[in-house]
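The instructor's notes for this session suggest beginning with a concrete chain rather than abstract definitions. Hand out the sequence below and ask the class to guess, before any prediction is shown, which regions might be ordered.
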Amino acid sequence: MSDEKKTGILDHIRELRKRLLWSVIAVVITTFTCFFFIEDIVEILKAPAGDINLVFIEMTEGFTTYLKVSLMAGVVVAMPFLLYQFLMFIIPALTRQERRSVYTILPFITIMFAGGILFGYYFLIPPATGFLLNFGVDIAEPQIRVSNYIDFITRLLVAIGILFEMPILTSFLARMGVITSRWLAERRKMVIIFAFVLAAIITPTPDIFNQSIVAGTIIILYEISIWLAKLFQKRRQETNIEVDSEGQ
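After discussion, reveal the predicted structure:
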């Protein structure tokens, strides 16, 4: 390996280390800040379940749950800064057009993730927790561990938040010319089947109503992805025509 290549690799490693260091510092600061508001955060997470009394049965369970909630809340709060650090690391290797695409979708990544969390919080968690907490109450009184409840809620919210990133990802790939709207449309039937399978996995209740909400949301997001891919594909073609015209 030549000295120039070694220097380039070392520069990338140094840059990566710097970006990771700033990301860790940001998460530590936001986590520490969220810890002071931990009771309010836990109350917000408990609200969709209604009047629920959580318990802990281990000496360290309450403390570790608070730490876990603080960390997850800290990561969510620091997410825009983390995305910025990631993009600052990869942008030097992108073309000018790819950089514009990245800058364009950056705010929408955060907006769609937050939208997914809000959707899960207001439309998915309440009926799910209502079903689970009221099922079997005739034979036993539910005493839910705080760690179990927090894990259940956060996993569900994160999963829905990630699903809401689908239109952003497909739009970016279409703008880069990696996929087309036709390619997505040809896989519509397969996605519909996959949506109901994934909904059965994500949704913690066996009733068809909650599963249909999740599956329907996935299908709608996919249809939006096809429409956005068609839009960005058209813009890409127009841009290429303009570039060719200027070249001539």
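Then share the key points. The mean pLDDT is 81. Residues 208-247 form the longest helix (40 residues).
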